[in-house]
Amino acid sequence: MSLYIVFLRAVNVSGKNIIKMQALKDVLQEAGFGEVKTYIQSGNLLLNSNLNAPELGRQIKALIAAVFQLDIEVFVRSREALQQALDQCPYGEDCAPNKVFVTFLDREPEKALLEALQAIDHKGEVFAVRGAVLYFYLPEGMAKSKMSNNYFESRLKLKATGRNVNTVKKMLELAE
Questions:
Q1: What is the structure's pLDDT at 16?
Q2: How far apart are CA 63 and CA 57, in angstroms?
Q3: Which residues pair with 47 in a beta bridge?
Q4: How far apart are CA 23 and CA 17, in angstroms?
Q5: What are 5's strand-pairing partners?
Q6: Which of 59, 84, 114, 157 could bond 109 through an S-S bridge, CB–CB 3.0 to 4.6 Å?
Q7: Strand order in 133-137's β-sheet?
Q8: Are 85 and 168 in contact (CB under 8 A)?
């Protein structure tokens, strides 16, 4: 079995898409996944599976739809892929880790859409894309920003889910 880190998009946010993590853990264990762990209530999971990452994502999405009646996007990464995503983050130690976000995309953005987004003045907020991972830094924090998961999804016409660097580091720590 291989260890995977799973991120669910927009779970338990503002009273929407409510899934109790213990209930999800139970469902995944009953489905045969091993050593299921959750971290906080925002849809962060670790588990073991014999499936490859794309098939695992499809199966978890189907289980959530069947059991919880929710259509949730599921992003699956190996520990190595998650470590690589963190290592490639262009915003270093001089940036507060709770203001740096690692956003997993369902595919690489189209060049024209990315160039249009890069042409916008984001007033001190910055972002960068490395393959199917988008990074952004919000010096004033999320509350005062227009940059968000929804912002990038709408501008780049793809699905995404993001976590701050602290959460990514914690998931890597739990995966050791």
A1: 86
A2: 10
A3: 4
A4: 14
A5: 46, 77
A6: 114
A7: 126-130, 133-137, 100-105, 160-164
A8: yes
Q: For the chain, which domains are there?
A: 2-78 (3.30.70.1280), 81-174 (3.30.70)
**Whole-number Å distance between alpha carbons of 74 and 40:** 16
Torsion, Cα of 156, 159, 164, 170 (10° steps):
-150
Answer whether 0.85 is exceeded by the pTM.
yes
For residues 88 and 168, is the Cβ–Cβ distance under 8 A? no
Q: Which amino acid is at 44?
A: N
CA distance linking residue 47 with residue 89, whole number of Å? 25
Q: Which two tokens stand for residue 9?
A: 């998009």
In angstroms, the CA 46 to CA 108 distance is 24
pLDDT tens per residue across all 176 residues of the chain: 999 999 999 898 777 889 999 999 999 999 999 999 999 988 999 999 999 999 999 999 999 999 999 999 999 999 999 999 999 999 988 889 899 999 999 999 999 999 999 999 999 999 999 999 999 999 998 888 999 999 999 999 999 999 999 999 999 999 98
The length of the chain, given as a count of residues = 176
